[in-house]
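Why should sequence recovery work at all? Because a backbone constrains its sequence more than one might expect. Tight turns favour small or flexible residues, buried strands favour hydrophobic ones, and helices have their own preferences. The token representation captures these environments compactly. In the example below, the structure is given first.
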């Protein structure tokens, strides 16, 4: 470590001790609780993720309890947080940990858990086990790219390698936990994407982007893939207090979650049910995912006789719908009905 690196780390750690965010998972060294927070907070704001962390910890305070839960139970508690593959990976990883007999305690071992990448493994290894390995997330990319005026795109192989090497060079080996958390908090609070607090920044004197007037241009990121549009048409088939639903299959969005009857793409409701008394409830409901935009139509059909459902579908009491993990879009569509079908007959959503 060169003198400049010590200076950078020292300034950052001083700022962190005075301004770091008080978060419940920072009050423990339990790797399970730290891992849980890291998975929940992937692509999720702290204010949205913290209540989920608290619910998971309250329901399953030990990894053995989470591993013993069913996938449906995990998905149901995760409902509304999005990116449901995280919940399935969380459940799988919990079982991996239990099979090992202990929580892995090195970066390389933690990295082998389902759903754990370099950033998450580094965060757990450094915070729970003091391993001197740097975390590199969006906040860290932004801070380092600005302070050192690095124009290498952060979403390229070259960029990831360069920033990871720099972060590890700056990392004080005996203060890995505090330094990594300081980097994350500094990017979230001080060196923010918009309107960073440069006039109050303890690193202002050495920030190259500030000196060059290039703060707004950094970090550099290559353009994302084009977002595609997808149409979905649902028919809520209700008969004698029951509704037809199915668990979504693997290989598509919302794997393992439940939904009403979904028409094959491109098929019209009147073609699928030519003599049915279909009622259009909502049309073109927009739901935005990472790489696609969903537009959904929602129909209600109440046949006079109980139908034989296609493979994969089942009749389920409407009053039990709140015990099934539903995608957020389906939650919205179902709530668009008369209200009396949701949450066991209550009109409260």
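From this structural description, the recovered sequence reads:
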């Amino acid at each position: 470590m060169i003198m400049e690196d010590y200076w950078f780390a020292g300034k950052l750690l001083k700022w962190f001790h005075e301004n770091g965010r008080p978060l419940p998972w920072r009050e423990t060294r339990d790797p399970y609780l730290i891992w849980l927070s890291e998975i929940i907070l992937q692509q999720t704001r702290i204010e949205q993720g913290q209540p989920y962390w608290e619910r998971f910890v309250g329901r399953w305070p030990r990894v053995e309890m989470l591993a013993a839960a069913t996938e449906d139970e995990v998905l149901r508690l995760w409902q509304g947080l999005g990116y449901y593959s995280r919940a399935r990976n969380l459940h799988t990883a919990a079982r991996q940990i239990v099979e090992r007999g202990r929580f892995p305690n090195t970066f390389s071992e933690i990295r082998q858990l389902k759903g754990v990448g370099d950033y998450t493994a580094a965060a757990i290894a450094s915070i729970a086990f003091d391993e001197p390995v740097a975390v590199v997330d969006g906040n860290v990319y932004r801070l380092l790219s600005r302070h050192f005026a690095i124009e290498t795109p952060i979403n390229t192989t070259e960029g990831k390698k360069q920033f990871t090497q720099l972060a590890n060079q700056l990392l004080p080996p005996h203060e890995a936990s505090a330094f990594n958390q300081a980097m994350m908090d500094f990017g979230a609070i001080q060196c923010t994407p918009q309107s960073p607090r440069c006039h109050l920044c303890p690193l202002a004197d050495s920030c190259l982007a500030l000196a060059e007037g290039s703060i707004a241009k950094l970090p550099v990121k290559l353009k994302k893939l084009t977002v595609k549009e997808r149409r979905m048409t649902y028919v809520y088939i209700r008969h004698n207090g029951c509704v037809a639903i199915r668990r979504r299959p693997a290989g598509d969005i919302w794997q393992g979650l439940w939904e009403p009857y979904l028409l094959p793409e491109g098929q019209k409701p009147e073609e699928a049910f030519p003599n049915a008394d279909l009622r259009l409830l909502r049309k073109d409901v927009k739901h935005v995912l990472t790489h696609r935009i969903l537009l959904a139509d929602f129909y209600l059909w109440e046949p006079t006789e109980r139908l034989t459902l296609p493979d994969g579908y089942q009749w389920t009491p409407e009053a039990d719908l709140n015990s099934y993990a539903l995608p957020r879009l389906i939650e919205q569509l179902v709530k668009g009905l008369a209200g009396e079908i949701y949450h066991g007959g209550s009109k409260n959503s």
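A few observations help interpret the result. The first strand starts at residue 228 and ends at 239.
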